[in-house]
Amino acid sequence: MKTTIGLALLASTFLLSSCIQYDKDKHKADYRKHLHWGYSGETAPEYWTEIEKNSDCGGAYQSPINIIHRRTDSMQIQGDLKIQYTPTTLLKEVENNGHSIQFDFEEGDSINYKNETYYLKQIHFHEPSEHKINGLIYPLEMHLVHMNKSGNITVLGLLGEEGEESQLFEFFESFLPLKNGAVKDIHQKVDLSSLFLEDKHYYSYTGSLTTPPCSENVNWIVFKEPIILSVEEVIKLRDNMPLNNYRNEQPINDRVVNYNY
Length: 261
Hints:
Belongs to the alpha-carbonic anhydrase family. This protein is an alpha+beta fold. 19% of the residues lie in helices and 32% in strands. The strands form 2 sheets. Strands 2, 3, 4, 5, 6, 7, 9, 10, 11, 12, 13, 14 and 15 form a 13-stranded mixed beta sheet that branches. A two-stranded parallel ribbon has the order 1-8. The longest helix has 31 residues, at 2-32. The termini are far apart.
């Protein structure tokens, strides 16, 4: 009799602890439904599929990825990418959107990729880098976001390496610091042709935005050769953004990554 009562109590205790754990898990899931995505704690990238229910964040063709050079398909450049930046690109404004520092552009500059014209919309930054090359994480990644008339996107990803001071980054950072949510009008010219992107080799693949809604309509062009900026410039950008504002590496799955040289 005592044995029967003991077993019953043990079973009840197990069921109670299971229910408590279930309730905790359910509470966490319900709590995340009301959160806005971010980069830490309950809003971190691993929870974006729960937080952003109508997004593509759980898709099979997500970004960023780790690019392993020896696994890429090498191909000689045949005019797939034509960069048409001028020394008179007009910056409209800069915003601290809570996720990154973002510079928005007036309509004008563009690139041509696979015979499609994509117009430069904005530039923003991630620290450390989101893409990796052969597992190497860089201190910074700069994204130049372009869109065509159909709404498809081509992003140029530039990895940043610490070294000498960059005049371009000095110009960008002259508008900082900027508080979270603040917007500052600029309406000044910036010379993006100084990046000399037409001289760089690049990797290309089909992926997604690296922030929600993680839309999978993005042509990625990640340049092999990094840009150089000073340690101080890296730190100044970092101090105006959330700590570690990068998305974790995503599976490549059945995608092909091309190396264009």
